[in-house]
TrEMBL record, chain A:
<feature type="domain" description="4Fe-4S ferredoxin-type">
    <location>
        <begin position="338"/>
        <end position="370"/>
    </location>
</feature>
<comment type="subunit">
    <text>Heterotetramer of 2 PreA and 2 PreT subunits.</text>
</comment>
<dbReference type="InterPro" id="IPR013785">
    <property type="entry name" value="Aldolase_TIM"/>
</dbReference>
<keyword id="KW-0479">Metal-binding</keyword>
<dbReference type="GO" id="GO:0004159">
    <property type="term" value="F:dihydropyrimidine dehydrogenase (NAD+) activity"/>
</dbReference>
<feature type="domain" description="4Fe-4S ferredoxin-type">
    <location>
        <begin position="371"/>
        <end position="401"/>
    </location>
</feature>
<comment type="function">
    <text>Involved in pyrimidine base degradation. Catalyzes physiologically the reduction of uracil to 5,6-dihydrouracil (DHU) by using NADH as a specific cosubstrate. It also catalyzes the reverse reaction and the reduction of thymine to 5,6-dihydrothymine (DHT).</text>
</comment>
<dbReference type="InterPro" id="IPR005720">
    <property type="entry name" value="Dihydroorotate_DH_cat"/>
</dbReference>
<dbReference type="GO" id="GO:0046872">
    <property type="term" value="F:metal ion binding"/>
</dbReference>
TrEMBL record, chain B:
<protein>
    <submittedName>
        <fullName>NAD(P)-dependent oxidoreductase</fullName>
    </submittedName>
</protein>
<feature type="domain" description="FAD/NAD(P)-binding">
    <location>
        <begin position="144"/>
        <end position="427"/>
    </location>
</feature>
<dbReference type="InterPro" id="IPR036188">
    <property type="entry name" value="FAD/NAD-bd_sf"/>
</dbReference>
<dbReference type="InterPro" id="IPR023753">
    <property type="entry name" value="FAD/NAD-binding_dom"/>
</dbReference>
<dbReference type="InterPro" id="IPR009051">
    <property type="entry name" value="Helical_ferredxn"/>
</dbReference>
<dbReference type="Pfam" id="PF07992">
    <property type="entry name" value="Pyr_redox_2"/>
</dbReference>
<dbReference type="Pfam" id="PF14691">
    <property type="entry name" value="Fer4_20"/>
</dbReference>
<feature type="domain" description="Dihydroprymidine dehydrogenase">
    <location>
        <begin position="23"/>
        <end position="130"/>
    </location>
</feature>
<dbReference type="GO" id="GO:0016491">
    <property type="term" value="F:oxidoreductase activity"/>
</dbReference>
Amino acid sequence: MANLQSDFIGIKSPNPFWLASAPPTDKEYNVRRAFEAGWGGVVWKTLGMEGPPVVNVNGPRYGAIYGADRRLLGLNNIELITDRPLEVNLREMKAVKRDYPDRALIASIMVPCEEEAWKAILPHVEDTGADGIELNFGCPHGMAERGMGSAVGQVPEYIEMVTRWCKMYTRMPVIVKLTPNITNVLYPAEAAKRGGADAVSLINTINSITSVDLDLFAPEPMIDGKGTHGGYCGPAVKPIALNMVAEIARNPETAGLPISGIGGVTTWRDAAEFMALGAGNVQVCTAAMTYGFKIVQEMISGLSEYMDDKGFTSVDQIVRRAVPNVTDWNQLNLNYVTKAKIDQDLCISCGRCFAACEDTSHQAIAMSEDRTFSVIDEECVACNLCVNVCPVEDCITMETMAPGSVDPRTGQTVAPEYANWTTHPNNPAAKAAE
Amino acid sequence: MVQDTFTPGVVAGRLDQDTYEAQFSDLHPPLGAHEALVAADRCYFCHDAPCITACPTDIDIPLFIRQIATGTPDAAAKTILSQNIMGGMCARVCPTEQLCEQACVREAAEGKPVLIGQLQRYATDNLQARGEHPFTRAEATGKAVAIVGAGPAGLACGHRLAMLGHRVDVYDARPKPGGLNEYGIATYKTPDGFAQAEVDWLLKIGGITLHHNKAMGRDITLGELQEDYDGVFLAMGLGGVNALGTTGEDKAGVLNAVDFIAELRQASDMAAVPVGRDVVVIGGGMTAVDAAVQAKLLGALNVTLVYRRGRDRMNASPFEQDLAASKGVRIVTHAVPVAVHGNGAVRDVEFEYVDDAMKGTGQMLRLQADQVFKAIGQTLEGDGLPQLDGGKIAVSQGGRTSLDGVWAGGDCASGGDDLTVTAVAEGRDAAMDIHATLMGTAG
């Protein structure tokens, strides 16, 4: 069994699976259960400044969307930062860290955008023995209306400024948590780096309304007939998060900046994907909220088995492994030709590939009287939609055409050399290949 | 007082009341809302779905399941009922494992089809339980059609005709409508008076008048109907029962399975229905299984179903055969009855084992019996009918017979399986042909 020991910006944990700052990490009771279940680290639910804590709504805080069999695919929340007094949280954090010294304990913090406020809270946090802090510049609901959370995260200058204050007033590593509710995640990431951040974590939740009550005509989650946008998370946001992680990882300005990957991590495979795209570790929330803390056992066993299969001896060998393969569209090889192929032994004849291709794509699948479905290579543009809609895994695959063979769709011989759009004759800006 | 199951002879009350109630309750209890959503989620919404092709009434199954999944079961019911007005009964009695569910791609994928039959029942039951009838009649056409037989074919035809604006008179030999739905199907498949409730609901379309206790040849004739109506649809089913043709067939205790099944369906108290200790059922179809299983459920100690060929040739589906076996019915194959023995009442039945070519082997079998049910097929009765084909009324497309203005469908007509759903399809299609003919738009 592979060793999953993780060292993220000097913070050690027995595995790279942390619980994100969120309801599951709001109390000592929950966090102790998480550590007993095997989680490598915890980012404590966001702390606010001293004084009367925030209050939460007393109606529904969450809304959800579902896949088949009521599988929770996306969750949205309008819960604020911790609504318990600062001193209670600090006391509990200290007790937990004392009892679980091998686990990572990170304090998430959100206080007003004033130097004094940050200066005031940091020593208290440091006193708990926490391994680091995470600056919550991400929450898009509620706190943003008060000039905190994503209201800070959407202004790179503020990110840089607050990060700098934190680096000035604490010796703890500083992780800056980014909001995805921006046009280009590179700006806030670069700002964090300029401010001296040790790492960024992303994504925080996405502005969202999960559904509308069609009797009351009110958005969900609904409070007394009204609703507000909440923060969206869960498996549905994973692709958005992966892209943002990859963008930061391959951006020359931020290339060396450690990343804690967040956003829909549900299985060991999701975690490995985040890490391959540049995340040094991952943070999980919705999966735990859906299935409980026990899921970490699958994550541990799955990642270990994968690493053993691949001969990896350290999780760091996964990190960034896919980053060199993330590129711009204009760098994609236009001489790479594939064709869909249907495995007739696996096909259950549902015909969804046919409907998808015939109605919405390229009429490249033939259907016989006896419901045999086959690809018409002359029409197939290899769009992959049939693969995507097929309910049987690996029944339809994309087969690469060998160089030298003739693509029956275009009548052209598949060229062996790499050629992208930048040199394509149809590109008005094309330069001749050198 | 409760009789011992060991008591010989044909006696009532072999079991206690609770056992009767449990035994004859719904074979497949209806799906709850949660179960229905879980089941509906498994449908892949196939293109030109094989389940539709497999359904004799061409119900758009993926559409109605999607309608259930999206919280509109009434729309689902309408999708079903627009193709099959007896979708509620068919959901209960269809051999789905040989039709839609056999064709389901998830049967191919996992050996577990989507529960199409039960989902259909979920949708139709909800609508029908509220008494809502989702169809309305077109403007009256002034045409009138006589239908003989108030079974699935007759009522499906009548409903469609009434919907199209025609006036319909349905004549039936029995005191209650429903045909085999009411008299010919095992009680546990359609308990709680569903058959009558469905007929009552169906008649809400309006324009249909039922005439009970009117048998062809006895109370009405085809000639009169042809005279009095613009069209006639024959759907009287098969009234006769095939004889064994063996000695001793007339002994007391030798009965027609269809009569036993009808008696059970009409019984208000199962404890009052007598059954033998040792029961022999002869035949291999659904009727044979329905009789055998119900004899067992009534408390018969030994029930043996004897069929002349192998199990693969039985008309009863594998599901029905397994059901019978699970209830404790012994299935004996490759044996033909040669004599019924007994002194006044049957005492035992003698069989000869035969090979696959039905050739006698000389090997004999004697089964003790105080009750014997014959279930070796039924025959069409009546004179002056249109031309026959293989003992049934010959029909072409749209149920047309050899006589102008006379259509036929259901079990009395040639072609198709003898299934409720097939009868509904034939009745519906004949109605469309009758309509086209009467309105002068027939091709």
